[in-house]
Amino acid sequence: PFDVLVVGGGPAGAAAAIYAARKGIRTGVVAERFGGQVLDTMGIENFISVPHTEGPKLVAQLEQHVKDYEVDVMNVQAAVKLKPANGDGLHHIELASGASVKAKTVILSTGARWRQMGVPGEDEYRNKGVAYCPHCDGPLFKGKRTAVIGGGNSGVEAAIDLAGIVRHVTLIEFDSQLRADAVLQAKLRSLPNVTIITSAMTTQVLGDGHKVTALVYKNRETGEEHTVELEGIFVQIGLVPNTEWLGGSIAMTNRGEIEVDAHNATSLDGVFAAGDCTTVPFKQIVIAMGEGAKASLAAFDYLIRH
Ligand code: FAD
């Protein structure tokens, strides 16, 4: 059995694996797709001490760093079930292949995925104007016209954030009213360079083959279609944690985030969690890595006491 089995191979999982291996304990990583969301990222400019890098390059470096240690990496393997230890102190992680991996401690770092609009043009122009993370990509649209899709808290926060950087923000909400907290809505409405459009369904992302040029939405009351010319579209309709596979085995919020304490412990003894799949506030690479390191040190601490 492993001393530490990390489930997930994004920044949180890579950091957890390196910290565990450096303690000289038996460490394994199960990852459906090593690299996680970073693989889908173009420019990264907020990974502190590295002014600019690209997703695939950072993933190659993460992989190399992990391989510098004795870590058993099981890539392209999805975990489908967590069977908590009963009596023997070993948790079982069942894989889609049918295999089962045993470990004294488990670190869950299965990350999250942005909910997509599912409209024509969205995939084609991802990273070419279609973006999901205002903290990451906001500055790329300095002085340009953007839209935010979604009028919940994250959409309205994104619009307020962007309004300070970009020329103009159009906020598009499907419902007849915004769903964000009143204080955020008041702040948003006080900004001179924001237009709010409700009862609007985005139907298409338009581009010139290289980058986004406009979005099309339908007024849900009149059925009329409108085109908004712009350079950037931030989709803020939800970040979904990859935790469905855990079923009811562990305490989660109603949004599916694994509940963790300051030591990354979950509700299950010997099971820790880190990164975007948890309740940690703010989902970023530098944060996920710090959380992975923390979870690993906590797992080590657990092992020396058991
Ligand atoms: P992830 O990166 O989501 O990794 C999860 C890992 O778990 C993957 O290996 C996945 O395959 C695996 N996994 C999932 N389910 C299972 C399962 N059942 N079994 C086994 N393995 C599983 N952050 C920044 O700081 N700066 C940026 O510029 C930036 N830009 C971004 C751009 C885009 C397009 C996106 C999508 C995100 C961006 N982010 C950025 C956010 C950042 O990528 C995430 O916060 C970070 O990757 C989270 O790391 P993580 O390890 O928690 O999860």
Automatic annotation (TrEMBL):
Q: State whether keyword Oxidoreductase applies.
A: yes
Which keywords annotate this record? Disulfide bond, FAD, Flavoprotein, NAD, Oxidoreductase, Redox-active center
Q: Which organism is it from?
A: Novosphingobium capsulatum
What cofactor does this one take?
FAD
Q: How does it assemble?
A: Homodimer.
- Which residues of the whole protein are included? 213 to 518 of 518
Homology family: Belongs to the class-II pyridine nucleotide-disulfide oxidoreductase family.
FAD/NAD(P)-binding domain: which residues?
2-292
Q: Which GO terms describe its molecular function?
A: oxidoreductase activity
Name of the protein = Thioredoxin reductase
Record bears the keyword Oxidoreductase:
yes
